[in-house]
């Protein structure tokens, strides 16, 4: 974020208000109506060295750019249908990689039943920059960030923190003993969470009628809870000990024994799990959906009056600022 | 273009064939159906230093990124409706520019009755890179590149060559006498054609039922004629002396008196005029539309059998390669 960037976004949001399709630029995507159908459009940009490691392979960056956009569709409850791909390749791109890039795109499109329908490829002057536009259709009602209600349970899918832990691991000094506590398999699993997030498309599509608000965890658990809180004009009370962790994360956390470090990695983002709020009465529905989708879904808090995220640990408030943690 | 890039695009086009929406990645955009409506989606990326001059102001780059995408919609005969904007800002972006950037976006959106509905803003590591996704609706039938028929007239709107001439002027040595022949007003007009191309939206929307094939002149007149030729599997015979020039271009051309140079600037691209083919029987309709839109539309050639662009000058063939000129 550079000085003035926030102001720019605010100004853009201001005049986009005239178009209901924009959702005031406050959500994960835009919704356009087309006869009786509604389409969700999302567009997120990924740059090597910023949203991916500088030395990540082009395939890894392209895959991630596609997956994070599909995750944004999931966060609106939409079924992914199409992508357009804007590839701005670094000048020194190894031409031998490009066949593998095409294959990566094909594989991810196939996996999520998405068609590549357009875009452009250029060779640029900076690091590889990939802009994906993903289009999904709404089968039922969209679930916005702004829909949380007082008394809602707060739920999250999967486990949190692994992707940020992987980033720390990938950037760690080779002499560091910090990750000695993890087996090779554990490290691999954690690293896969960073490179190949799993957009929770099925879950997103199934939450219509059950959840009141929904977001994907990209900025970080606490920051994204903050987005629900601010757009819903309510508070999210999160219980730290309920946040689902992988065995690897739990083990690393015990090993480093540093609460602040643990908390910053936990809120580090890039999880691409779904964070949602749902009325208490829908608990059974959420739980049976978890069973149906064979996906862990964990209740981690409640929605209350207020306008912030309150994280408690053993009943003690550990973070009560209004924006939540941000990791950059 | 780096080695392998063409192969990548070919591979992507290959598997996108399965989706009719992609038009095999051969046209200016994609078409998706939505109940009874059809939407056209285009996505073109602009990078400072590549598609714009390194020292161009951020406003100029943003404006151009929007306009070239609206031109792609015009080239499909679609009515622009929405844009999504992916802004990857250079780190050294002057924050004081950003209010003007927001205002530029608002002005261009207003001018073309387009709503900004989404996108993202990030600060990157390279030069400013802007990816625009523009969405239009098809009022009538789309006009593809591939629809040219034998016997069609070839038409082009406006004048050709000014934008490339402006680029040459902007990059010229301050000591050069090449542009002495142009008045300050002429230079300003030519330069405006480079920075503020006018997407021919009204013309594009009105060509349905009249034109058989359509493209916007972005790569260059001869290269884009080549795209119609190759996708239509026919030849375009162009008469050089018919190509409409601005007084400034004609004056500069006489002044430099260098046929090859003139030809390369004429085919230099960035014109964002519409190039189309239409049956001879529709001549009157084209001409009355030109009057209605107060827009110059000039017949510059014919469609014949073959698979290339043939440019003649006073009856002499001056270029008969199959791809047409390319300017980089």
Model description:
The structure is a homodimer of 328-residue chains. With 328 residues, chain A is α+β, with helices and mostly antiparallel strands. Chain A folds into two domains: 19-138, PurM-like, N-terminal domain (60s Ribosomal Protein L30, Chain: A), CATH 3.30.1330.10; 145-319, Phosphoribosyl-aminoimidazole Synthetase, Chain A, domain 2. The first copy, chain A, is 34% helix and 25% strand. Chain A is built from ten helices and twelve strands. Chain A has helices spanning 5-16, 58-74, 98-111, 162-170, 184-195, 201-206, 221-232, 247-256, 259-266, 283-293, and strands spanning 30-34, 37-47, 78-89, 115-123, 129-138, 153-157, 213-216, 235-239, 274-278, 297-304, 309-313, 316-319. In chain A, the strands form two sheets. A seven-stranded mixed sheet of chain A has the order 7-9-6-10-8-11-12. In chain A, helix 2 runs parallel beside helix 3 (98-111) and helix 4 crosses helix 5 (184-195). Chain A is globular and about 55 Å long. Residues 320-328 of chain A have low confidence and may be disordered. Chains A and B meet through helix 1, strand 1, strand 2, strand 3 and helix 3 of A and helix 1, strand 1, strand 2, strand 3 and helix 3 of B.
């Amino acid at each position: 974020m550079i000085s003035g960037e926030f102001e720019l976004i605010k100004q853009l949001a201001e005049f986009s208000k005239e178009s209901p399709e924009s959702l005031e630029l406050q959500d994960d995507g835009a919704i356009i109506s087309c006869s009786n159908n509604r389409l969700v459009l999302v567009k997120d940009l990924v740059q090597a060295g910023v949203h991916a490691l500088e030395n990540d392979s082009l395939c890894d960056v392209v895959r991630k750019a596609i997956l994070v956009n599909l995750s944004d569709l999931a966060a609106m409850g939409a079924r992914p249908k199409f992508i357009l791909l804007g590839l701005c390749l670094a000048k020194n791109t190894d031409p031998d990689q490009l066949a593998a890039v095409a294959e990566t795109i094909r594989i991810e499109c196939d996996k999520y039943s998405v068609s590549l329908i357009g875009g452009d490829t250029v060779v640029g002057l900076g690091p590889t920059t990939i802009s994906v536009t993903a289009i999904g259709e709404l089968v039922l009602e969209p679930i916005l960030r702004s829909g949380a209600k007082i008394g809602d349970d707060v739920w999250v899918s999967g486990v949190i923190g692994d992707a940020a832990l992987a980033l720390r691991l990938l950037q760690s000094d080779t002499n560091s003993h910090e990750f000695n506590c993890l087996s090779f398999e554990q490290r691999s699993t954690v690293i896969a969470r960073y490179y190949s997030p799993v957009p929770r498309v099925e879950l997103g599509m199934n939450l219509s009628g059950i959840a009141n608000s929904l977001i994907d965890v990209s900025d970080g658990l606490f920051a994204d809870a903050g987005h629900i809180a601010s757009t819903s004009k309510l508070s999210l009370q999160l219980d730290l000990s309920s946040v689902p962790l992988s065995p690897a994360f739990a083990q690393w956390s015990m090993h480093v024994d540093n609460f602040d470090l643990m908390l910053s990695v936990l809120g580090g983002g890039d999880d691409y799990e779904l964070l949602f709020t749902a009325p208490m009465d829908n608990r059974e529905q959420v739980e049976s959906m978890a069973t149906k989708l064979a996906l862990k879904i964990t209740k981690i808090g409640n929605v209350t009056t207020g306008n912030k995220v309150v994280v408690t640990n053993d009943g003690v408030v550990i973070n009560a600022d209004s924006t939540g943690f941000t990791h950059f």
